[in-house]
Design goal:
Layout (H helix, E strand, L loop, with lengths): L8 H19 L3 H8 L5 H19 L2 H6 L3 H25 L4 H29 L3 H32 L3 H18 L19 H9 L3 H16 L1 H10 L6 H9 L3 H17 L1 H11 L13 H33 L5 H30 L1 H12 L15 H6 L8
Helix pairs in contact: 1-7, 1-8, 2-3, 3-6, 3-16, 5-6, 5-8, 6-16, 7-12, 7-13, 7-15, 9-16, 10-16, 10-17, 11-17, 12-15, 13-14, 13-15, 14-15, 16-17
Length: 415
């Protein structure tokens, strides 16, 4: 079966590195807003500002890194970004232990981590495309997606329990260690990686990535759709955190449980994505799952206290996550296939920077909006706007350009 086919020893190390960092990140799910609320006693506006400023400044810092990474070996960049995230996150429990943790430090760490996330993601996408190709690329992305959702099923409940037992910064310490282990795993991949040959575009800015996206009749609608959908799904999260941990009286472990159990749908979606493509075609799967993922979040505006409220959050998140888990690996594979090898890093960086800046701007706006209209009303508005985003999905299927097909290796090898 394709799900058990070996993609080679080198991919195995990459997958292992991804898994350990994914589990670390999931263990620390919501750590920054939790620390802001439980330790620094921040309100909705401050928690939203923390999320927004970290994304925005981190994205701005990452802008010059995309062109720099494009023409350098990707694996050393990935290791460096893992080590940067390790050091930044480690500073939070250290400051907490010394009694000097403050809002400014949380903000600074969130900026550094956001910039490193963008840079690592762009470099890893280019590295994956050089490592596997053809049908194996969708298999690889499906395995990453399944690993991600598996980690979210397990991580947040354990993280919530760890916070209850050992304190609010425990999970950030675990997340920091996971990046150190990821760096070691990526270093163990081995094998040669030639330095990309310099070209006349080597000095190009990240604008080259945006130009390529906006000039593509296929990628352009997907770009606007994914950026807006991801932002509108994420902006209510800080508000929901304050609502659930504050007025509704949920414990941290209940908050974590509400978002972890539905991730079983993510595991299911990631496993059925490839069979669905084989049966119905890539375009139909992208369109259908893209529509479905926008239909659920409006329900979060109606969450109440007690078990009924907890079940409502779980049901909404199950629908969102299952739909996203089908959409994401198919979309990620298609985007890589549609992007020439010498533009992958700049294109992925431009995409990621746009997404983070949009999420940051809308998160800050929604925090301000919640101050004037109320938390539930702000969450409801995000859900209503999401219902319009399927209009941006491409209506016609598109073929992969021959140049991009030629750039992909025919197989990953096996061991």
């Amino acid at each position: 079966m394709d799900g058990r086919r070996s993609l080679g020893r080198r991919f195995g190390w990459l997958w292992a590195a991804y898994a350990v960092s994914a589990f670390g990140t999931s263990l620390s799910f919501g750590a920054f807003p939790l620390i802001a609320v439980l330790v620094l006693h921040a309100g909705p506006a401050a928690v939203s500002a923390l999320a927004a400023a970290g994304l925005a400044v981190g994205a701005a810092v990452a802008v010059p890194l995309g062109p720099w990474v494009e023409f350098r070996r990707k694996r050393p960049v990935m290791v460096a970004m893992d080590l940067v995230r390790f050091a930044a996150l480690l500073s939070v429990p250290a400051a907490y232990a010394l009694g000097v943790l403050g809002f400014v430090q949380l903000l600074a760490v969130s900026v550094v981590v956001a910039a490193a996330d963008i840079t690592f993601g762009a470099a890893s996408g280019a590295f994956l495309k050089s490592l596997v190709g053809g049908d194996d690329l969708l298999i690889a992305n499906g395995r990453f997606e399944a690993t991600n959702w598996t980690s979210i099923v397990i991580g947040p409940p354990l993280g919530g329990a760890a916070i209850g037992l050992f304190g609010p910064v425990t999970t950030l310490l675990a997340d920091a260690v996971s990046y150190l282990l990821s760096a070691l795993g990526i270093g163990a991949i081995g094998g040669g990686e030639p330095r990309p040959a310099p070209t006349t575009e080597a000095k190009g800015s990240l604008l080259e990535g945006w130009r390529y996206i906006l000039a593509s009749p296929v990628l352009r609608p997907l770009f606007f759709n994914t950026v807006l959908v991801n932002a509108l799904i994420m902006v209510p999260v800080p508000l929901l955190t304050v609502l659930m941990l504050g007025p509704l009286g949920f414990a941290p472990w209940q908050y974590a449980l509400a978002f972890s159990v539905p991730c079983l749908g993510g595991l299911l979606g990631s496993r059925i994505a490839r069979p669905l493509v084989a049966r119905f075609g890539r375009h139909r799967v992208l369109l259908t799952s893209g529509v479905l993922r926008a239909c659920w979040p409006l329900g979060l505006a109606f969450v109440g206290p007690g078990n009924a409220g907890l079940l409502l959050v779980m049901a909404v998140e199950l629908g969102v996550i299952t739909s996203c888990a089908v959409f994401n690996p198919v979309f990620s594979t298609f985007r890589l296939e549609m992007t020439p090898t010498d533009r992958v890093v700049r294109t992925l960086s431009a995409w990621s920077v746009s997404g983070k800046l949009t999420t940051a701007a809308l998160t800050a706006l929604w925090g301000l909006l919640a101050t004037f209209t109320g938390t539930r009303e702000a969450i409801a508005l995000a859900g209503l706007l999401l219902l319009a985003t399927p209009l941006l999905l491409p209506r016609r299927p598109a073929a992969v350009p021959e140049a991009s097909q030629d750039a992909l290796p025919s197989s990953a090898g096996s061991t």
